[in-house]
Structure formats: structure tokens, C-alpha cells
Amino acid sequence: MTDHFGADATNDASADVTIAGTADTDTATAASADTANHAGAIKGQDAPEALARGEFPTPPRGRLSSREKKWIVYDVGNSAFVLLSTAVIPIYAKSLMPADGNIVSAWGYAQTIASLVIALLMPLLGSIADVQGMKVKFFLGFFGTGAVMCAALALPLAWLPFLIVYVLATIGLNGSLTFYDSMLIDTTSNERMDKVSSHGYGWGYVGSTIPFIACIALIFGGPSLAGWSTVACTRASFVITAVWWAAFTIPLLTSYRQVHYRATREHTREAVRGTFTELAGTLRKLVRNKPLWMFMVAFFFYIDAVNTVISMSTSYGTQLGIDSTQLVVALLVTQFVAFPCAILYGRLAGRFGCKPMIMAAVVAYMGIVFFATFFLKTATEFWILAILVGMFQGGIQALSRSYYGKIIPKDHANEYYGLYDIFGKTASILGTFLVATTTTLTGNASLGVLSIAILLVVALVFLTLQKDPTRAA
């Protein structure tokens, strides 16, 4: 899974992908061409010495390095909570609500609040995290919050406190993902980003099914085999998911090293004081970089559709009266479909380019939205919808993450990924709020789903007009 640019990255970022410090000449001479390319994507005061020690070896063609694998497995861990949030938690929340409660509206507002908090926090925290050694600390804080709150969902809570705890868990998840995404540039080289990012989403999808299947087996089989109530089994599934999430975070925590940064530990205080100045400078650079801001606008609109479909699908199906068992099994099938499709998407990006594959997924999502609006009535249609989503969901997410990582300055990665998160999470606010509000006002959830198509059209226009900086002129 190669990309088409390497040295053709944005001109604004070209000065930021050189290696700080003085590399050993003999070592550089003896290095292979692949290792030299890999070195070109590494920034940091200690990067040359680390390369000389073989800390960032270039793996044989077609394989993943140990460092890349340990980064990928966090997707396996956190995706378990994402899957549970999509398939089980909305159904459980619905059971806690009064009979006349509308889970689509409540769930939409809960997602909106969680996204808003992250969108407000990430630019500031992301800028501070660009200081050497700070990224992993912020990652650990958000991951810890998410995992603990996931386990806390098992407490006997009424529906409103339950939603509050869920919002806190979601904030922890989304915050950790911002720092996790930016760790990609410290893990691999530009030419391998599409491959590594796609493998992350792919293995995340299939790996998350292991605890999910265990949880579903417990929920459906526990009452007859162990004598537990369905409610008790459902609560136990929250604890199982939290433990799984934590276990698959350990490899990343023990192996990660921040090699792209804008200040050393010795200058942390000065860097933190200059955070707002740095952030303002980053915004000015973003505005001057037309290909980057045009992609960000397009990303804002199309990721809105993706996130809204993911977060609202089960609640939408529940409101239509589709049996919960059918919903859960269909979404499980989505994970297995998404695994090979995400990896295939990464390979196709190497052949046709990252941006064209993103555009293809946007067009596909238009079809998915129209199908959900006009044809989704029964469990059979929901199964079809789940398979269609699985075919494109992982690909568009993975390639968006890697494409963005390749066109930004590497030593300000967290700052830029903080802005990336603003666009992504603000889009989630707009999408879920739009669906929730339209459903509340009209009493028809299908009209809310249809409105997403407008956002996809706008995204496609911006992608069409954007000049791809990863392609040769």
C-alpha cells in the first residue's frame, strides 16, 4: 500500500520533514533507499540517533514492523467499545427510558454533547501535546477516562445518569483517538501510512468482534445457563469491553516514542505559554494552504455522514421496530465485511491514489443514505444497509487519516490533528443534531437521514475542486 507522493508533499510542509540534528554520515551512506525515505518522514532531536540504532527499521516489503503492529492493536481495543456503542448500548438505553421516550433524539443529543466537548478541547490540548513526551500523557488520560466510564456503565443507573456516563466514556474514547491518530506519523513513513492506517481499521473491525460475540453470547445465553438476568448480563458486557480495551492498549503504551515534536521537555513551560500563539500561527498556515483547507472543508461534510450513519444506525432501526437480535447480528456482519474491505481500500489507494478512493467512498455513501431513506423498512433491508456500510466505512476513515497525515507539517502533528478533530467532531455535532432535531419536529426519522445527502454533495464538490498535493504536478 504505497502512496504517490513522498517528496511531493505540500511545499509548506517540506521544511518540516527534514531530520533535526546531525546524522552519522557513514550510517546514512550504508542505509538502503527505503530506510532513507523512512528517515525523511521522521522529525525530532533524537531521530537520527534512533535510526542509527535501528529503532525504526524498515520491514521487508509487504510486512508490518513491530512498531506498526503495536500501534494497530489499539484499534482492536477501542473498536470493541465503538461496536458495543453502536449495537448494544442504544438498545439498553432504550430499555431504561419511559415508554414514550424517543431514543433517536436522546441518542443524537448525547452524541452531540460528547462531540462538542472534544471539538472545544482538542486544539488547545493538541498544541500542548506537540511538546516532546506530552502526547502519550494526554493519550493515557483520555483512554483511562474512557475505559473507566465504560466499566461504570455497568452500575445500576436510571436512563439520564446512564447517558451522562456514556457521554463521558465517549469523550474519553474520542480524545484518545485524536492523539492515537497523530501517533501514526511517529510510527511509520509517508509511503506506508495508507497501508498501516487501513490495517488499523481493518483489524479493529474484525478484532472487536471477539469481545462483542462473547458479550452477545452472555446476554442471550446467560439467563438460561448461569441464571443471571438479561440486564445483569448486559451490564457485565460493559465490564468485559472495558477490560478488552485496556488490554489492547498496553502494547502501544509500552512501545510508543514521540519523534516528531516542536519543543523538548526542557522548554515545556515556554512551549505551553506560547500555545495560543502557536495555534494562531497554525490557523494562519492552514488558511494559506489552499489544498489543505479545501480538504478539511470536504472532510467536515463527508465525515458527518459517516459518523452519523455509524452512531445513529441502531437507534434508527430500533425506532423503525426492527428486532434487536436482527440489528445486533447485522452489525456484527458489518465488522467482518469491513475487515477485508478496509485493507483492500488501502491497496487500491496505492494503485489509484488516496484522494480518488475517498471520493469513490463519498459517492457510495450517497447511495447508502438514499437506500436508508427510501428502502429501509424491514430487517432484510437493514442487513443490506449493514453490508454496504461495511464495504466503505473503514476505507474512508483509514484513508482520511493517512491522507491528512501526509499533507501536514510533522512536528506540529498534534496541533493539526486537533484541528482535524474539530472538523470531524463538529461535523458529528451537525449531523446528529440535524437528525435528532428533524426527527423531533417531524416525527419522521427518514427525513433526518435524507438531509445527510446534501452534506455529501457539498463534500464531493470541494474534493473535486481541491488540487491533490500528494500527486506530481
Walk me through what this model shows.
With 473 residues, this protein is an all-alpha fold. Helices cover 76% and strands 0% of the residues. It has helices spanning 11-14, 25-30, 33-40, 47-52, 66-87, 89-96, 103-129, 135-152, 159-182, 184-187, 193-207, 209-225, 230-247, 250-255, 268-273, 275-288, 290-319, 324-352, 354-374, 379-406, 413-442, 445-450, 452-465. α8 (135-152) packs antiparallel against α13 and α19 (354-374) packs antiparallel against α23. The longest helix has 30 residues, at 290-319. The protein is globular. The two termini are 22 Å apart. Residues 1-56 have low confidence and may be disordered.
Task: Put the structure in a nutshell.
The chain is mainly α and 473 residues long.
Q: Please tally the helical runs, counting DSSP H or I stretches of 4 or more residues.
A: 23
Shape: globular
Number of strands: 0
| Series of secondary-structure elements, N-terminal to C-terminal | HHHHHHHHHHHHHHHHHHHHHHH
How far apart are the termini? 22 Å
Secondary-structure class: mainly alpha
Largest sheet: none
Helical coverage, percent range? over 70%
Low-confidence stretches: 1-56
Integer average pLDDT = 75
- The radius of gyration computed from the alpha-carbon positions, rounded to a whole number of angstroms, is 22 Å
**Proportion in β-strands:** under 5%
Task: Jot down its keywords.
single chain; mainly alpha; 76% helix
Write the topology of this structure.
Blueprint lengths: L10 H4 L10 H6 L2 H8 L6 H6 L13 H22 L1 H8 L6 H27 L5 H18 L6 H24 L1 H4 L5 H15 L1 H17 L4 H18 L2 H6 L12 H6 L1 H14 L1 H30 L4 H29 L1 H21 L4 H28 L6 H30 L2 H6 L1 H14 L8
Helix pairs in contact: 5-11, 5-13, 7-8, 7-9, 7-16, 7-17, 7-21, 8-9, 8-13, 9-21, 11-18, 11-20, 12-13, 12-18, 17-20, 17-21, 17-23, 18-19, 18-20, 19-20, 19-23
